[in-house]
Amino acid sequence: MITWGISANSHDAALAVFTNKELVFASHSERYSGLKNDAHLNDKLISEARKWGEPDEVIWYERPLVKTLRQLRAGQGWTYYNKNNISNYLRSYGIRSPIRYTDHHLAHGAAGYFTSPFDAACIIVIDSIGEFDTLTIWNANKEKGLKRIYNQWYPHSVGLWYSAFTQRLGLKPQEDEYILMGMAAYGDPKRFEQEILDEFFYPMTEKGRPKVKLKHNLHRGCMWWRPELNTPQDIMDIAAAVQSIYVHILKYISDWARRKSPSGNLVLMGGCALNCAANSVIRSDWNDAWIMPNPGDAGSAIGAPLAHWKQHIKWPGPYLGHNIEGDYPVEEALQELLTTGIVGVANGRAEFGPRALGNRSLLADPRGPDIKDRVNNIKKRQLFRPFAPAVLEEKSKDYFDGFTGPFMQYTANCTDPGLPAIIHGDGTSRVQTVSSDQSLGFRKLLERWNEETGCPILLNTSLNIKGKPIVNDELDAVQFAKHYGVKVYCKAAATT
Fold this sequence. Notes:
By secondary structure, the chain is an alpha/beta fold. The protein has helices at residues 30-33, 43-49, 64-73, 79-83, 86-91, 104-113, 158-168, 177-183, 193-200, 232-260, 276-283, 300-309, 330-340, 371-379, 440-453, 474-484; strands at 2-7, 14-19, 22-28, 57-60, 99-101, 120-126, 133-141, 145-153, 265-269, 288-290, 319-324, 342-346, 348-351, 360-364, 388-392, 400-401, 411-414, 428-430, 432-434, 457-462, 488-489, 494-495.
């Protein structure tokens, strides 16, 4: 039995393949089309998925008719009716398999819970919008599956509010929220925090059900708010206020959920689960936590089938995409790092999710005062932006104080001031721990780097040309190498 889970036709389309309920492949459309956050399927992705055979069924990540009703309510017109005809949409790609549908937020929750190590858990899903849901809370266990205990409807959306401010700060909504999060470390939240709360939110009650109600429908943004505030410091201070408010809201929601959950385990899903700084604040309130490495809509390509099957699967890890065959170029990449301090690696299965975790990574020596600027200049990023550290798991506590994990989902205080390239303005780092059961090649490279330098850490950022998706295949790697003049190793031989 071959099942395809699909999330598409909105943003960041993705396709997952299951054979007899075993997850064997998952990837983003953007990696094949070259279009960042590509909303649509494409023939190259479908062709790769067909290597496992023609699908016996397709399970779609949301309910298109209900979504159309919400779009009509939002004043978006009947144009979406035809867009949401999923049967016709899939036929345009030659997919004629029977289609089943699931609820958007249920797909998020199922993707998290049924890939988690927990028998019982509380699930919090926060995103911009599903069909109507913007926030849902669930209790889950093996006997009863997922039981929703709270939901909040459009237009009251914390995710839309955060995206609206992303746009207000001159960034791209639904894409650059992580930049706002990073900018927040350099601003003063107190300058605008109360003003933004008063302008956009009704008071949040301390008793009863959580209520995060907005005074404005932010579907079309908030460019109207204080346009005169446009200096670099204004921008940083607004970002700091927005991030501080979001942390407060997430803590408020988490506290209520913890009181209502018989389990001390948390599953956090939806696009907002990518806010690693906020995740770290609530993590200590729970016994254990799991965030599937692709918690946004793309990850619902995995969640849609799981919502129907209502059973756990063996989580195979995040390396689920296109395979560049050949041995991981450990010694070649090591020598380049020792010589120039920077190297690209594209090898093995591509990561499914927004973060490069060693198989499609630009790596660098994290030591020294100039490395951050060097890598930011290569990637054409704002010079203030730091990078994530990848560290041998057993050495993590020697350098970082706080919650860490294998998927860059939390921030922890960095205790070594000699690593400025991987430290945010508030002294934290977005840490990736690398264990012996993860990407074996990347683990070996870290071990060899530690042997040669005494440093168990490498700077790790995604291997992508600015404005383009993460490198998928060898041709993409060649293009990156030519564009930036950085050696990229796919196998033993470098592309330049």
